[in-house]
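User: what does the whole thing look like in 3D?
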Amino acid sequence: MTEQILLTTTVGSFGKPDYLQKARNTHARGKLSASELTELERKATEEWIRRQEELDLDILVDGEMYRGDMVAYFAERLDGFRIGGLVRSYGNRYYHKPVIASKLSRPKPMTVEWFRFTQSLTDRPVKGMLTGPYTMLDWSYNEAYRTRRDAALALAEIVRQEAEDLEAAGARYIQIDEPAIHARPEEIGIAIEAMGIVTQNLRAKTISHICYGDFAAIYPKVLELPVDQLDLAMHNYEYRWLQLFDEHPFTKELAIGIVDVHSHRLETVDEAAEGIRKGLKYVSADRLLPHPDCGLKTRTVEESVDKCRVVVEAAKKVRKELGARAVARA
Amino acid sequence: MKTTVIGAYPKISDEHQELRRALHRADRGELDDAGLAEVFDQTTRWALGELESAGVDVINDGQIRWDDPLAPFARAWKGCERGPLERFYDNNTYFRQPVISGPISSDGSTLVRDFEFARAAARGELKAAICGPLTFATLTAEDRHYRSLEDRTLAVADALAAELRGLKAAGARLVDIEEPALVAHPEHVQLERAAIERLAKADIPLALQTYFFPADALLDALSTFPVAQIGLDVRSRDTRAIQGLRPLKQTVVLGVVDARNTRVESEREIGDIVDAALRQVDGDRLWLAPTTGLEYLPHDIAVRKLAALVSAARALGGVHA
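Assistant: Here's the predicted 3D structure for the full assembly of 651 residues, as structure tokens:
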């Protein structure tokens, strides 16, 4: 039975192979056609599915080989957005911050074909991956809607349509990321209201990833976010958010970050296993899912693989310990 | 009515990406420290040139070498290092939180070389900037030395006072203290006063720049702070600060163009804010600025925001002179 506990997963993105990075640059210069680029993106996606299977991860992702940025990818496909110039996020990393320039709408599904393709490559479940309405708003410039709530709710309607299309295409897990949810703690009610629109009709397991911010400022209110599982960066914070669960018990499934994604340093299996043990003090093993702190797109393919391997080995190690304890009790 | 800028200027534009490429090459070991330093200097010259050609009266060096507002200090000071990545207030911009392992100290030279370089390259008036003591202290991830926020803030203030003395010796005549923490945590206003009093001992004119949050509740307290200028963001959130400027005895640096939204303000919009401010303070005590660092905007919009700022100030100068 220990195979059903501590299911391992990842947050969504992986490092892109060199050939794809070069192809994206060539495409941006107009020297590679969209269909040629798509072929390479499919090749890279298939490679990542094979790697995840070889690593023995339980719940897979498509790796986002076809996305640059988690907000811009959607903004580029929605009516009403304009793509702005480059803005720095940290260090030497820049992104095209979108502008909400007029009323928003979704001309057609944005991720469903990629989900179908990826799920067709494997028997293991693949997560449908979306960016949440509050984060879409917070990481864009709003020129069009009178209030931030108005813009968030308009985005929620669009994300709802996409999520329901993913479910209709067979997605059993749908992840709607809200890493900006604590940007303005006083607006958590807006994020909760917007997520309620997105998940109201879904039967799939719903997940939301939250990272890099003051989680204490939104806890325990964030437990009202209408999703089944919260996916939290923990290693980067030396697991200090777990202490919050002493006062207000954590009530959802917890996907727990046990390796840092912004460091070249590779954690040891023992170190990562200790992170899982910390989580087990608060969440039972059937509701605890070890993974890296965040998406791995800033790492190379090799670093991404190494980080995932540590996660899987750590989970196996702790499963074994739990199994041994269960046998001893029996 | 003078114009000025606060904080960091965009480090790259669509056409000018030398620094981004150089940092990538340095990360891969293909560019040495001297080569990277040269690109930092070139980029600083470019930023100075852009600020000057926009017609801004009092400029800074664009903080091209600053990874984030805390980085130069967390890197240079004894007793301190750069720790985990964290979001900088309500921005999709991230910084490394300081980790304090022992008594903090500075030899006061952290910014001197860069200030001297920029002053030699700039044609007009150049001010310097430091991170605010409360901002540094409240954004610290871990403190293994000081026993309280008070002790930590005052220790940071002492290290910053050393930086101010270094900048003064290098010829600085005005220094911004970038202090969003004061308006994020107005409950610490008395601690901030104690910290600013330590900075004031360096005997150099200071501009206390607050941004991201309203300063409404703090205006009376700020009026007796020993600083030459108070910067206020009147665009980021709902605020009535503009109606409460009267107690302030210092020059008011009014953030009238929103450095966190791409919509470019009209001359009329800026004029309405300034008119409201002029009912509270004299025109010779009013400077106009973006709300915060222009690096939160893409370069092309930053340029348009500066143009809006300068043209509004000139039009108003004509009316109110």
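In plain terms: The radius of gyration of chain B is 19 Å. The CA atoms of residues 268 and 312 of chain B lie 8 Å apart.
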